[in-house]
Design a protein that fits this description.
With 175 residues, the chain is of the alpha/beta class. It has one domain: Rossmann fold. Helix content is 37%, strand content 17%. It has helices at 21-29, 70-87, 103-114, 131-144, 162-172; strands at 10-15, 47-50, 56-59, 90-96, 119-124, 151-153. A 6-stranded mixed beta sheet has the order 2-3-1-4-5-6, sandwiched between helices. Strand 4, helix 3 and strand 5 form a beta-alpha-beta unit.
């Protein structure tokens, strides 16, 4: 737990391994601070980064496939769950906009809801969807999850949707 003097709102980025959490974090911060890799499971511990807007970003280890043993993955999950329960951040569940709803994402969102943790859903990689594909995926994905506080359609690559999300965050935190 953090000392009380350092208490700032936290926005935690969560999602499956290799969905683009660190890439999106770099886009949100406007500079490369988080390590990005093609290899799943690069983020192995919770990393905190200050945002100029006044909150902290938390880059969480991914869930799902990573080239580490089961014991390490379970430790990551345990540490992540402990962090979320202790700090109660606004959790961003990052999903891949190209693919159908994933069971792991749905289980994770259900876990957040069962612990009354606030969450938003950000569908990443929308820059490479055609208009028709985007419409189809928006309909499919929004029906597959409980209603989040915010649905965002973003691209870590181009920055699409990022300004709208940051404006929503400022309003959410009353900044």
């Amino acid at each position: 737990m953090r000392p009380i003097l350092e208490k700032k709102p936290i926005v935690a980025l969560s999602g499956r391994s290799n969905v683009g959490k660190s890439s999106l974090l770099n886009r949100l911060l406007g500079r490369p601070v988080a390590r990005v890799s093609q290899k799943p499971g690069c983020t192995r511990q919770i990393q905190l980064y200050p945002a100029q807007e006044g909150w902290l970003w938390a880059d969480l280890p991914g869930y799902g496939y990573a080239q580490v043993d089961q014991k390490k993955r379970l430790l990551w999950l345990k540490n992540t769950e402990h962090f979320l329960k202790e700090e109660a951040p606004l959790t961003c569940v990052l999903i891949d906009s190209h693919i159908p709803p994933q069971k792991l994402d749905q289980i994770w969102v259900a876990w957040l809801g069962s612990h009354n943790l606030p969450f938003v859903i950000l569908a990443n990689k929308v820059d490479s969807l055609s208009q028709k594909e985007r419409y189809h995926q928006q309909k499919l994905l929004t029906q597959a999850f409980p209603e989040p506080l915010y649905w965002g359609w973003v691209s870590a690559k181009t920055g699409e949707g990022v300004p709208a999300f940051l404006e929503w965050l400022k309003a959410y935190w009353h900044l």
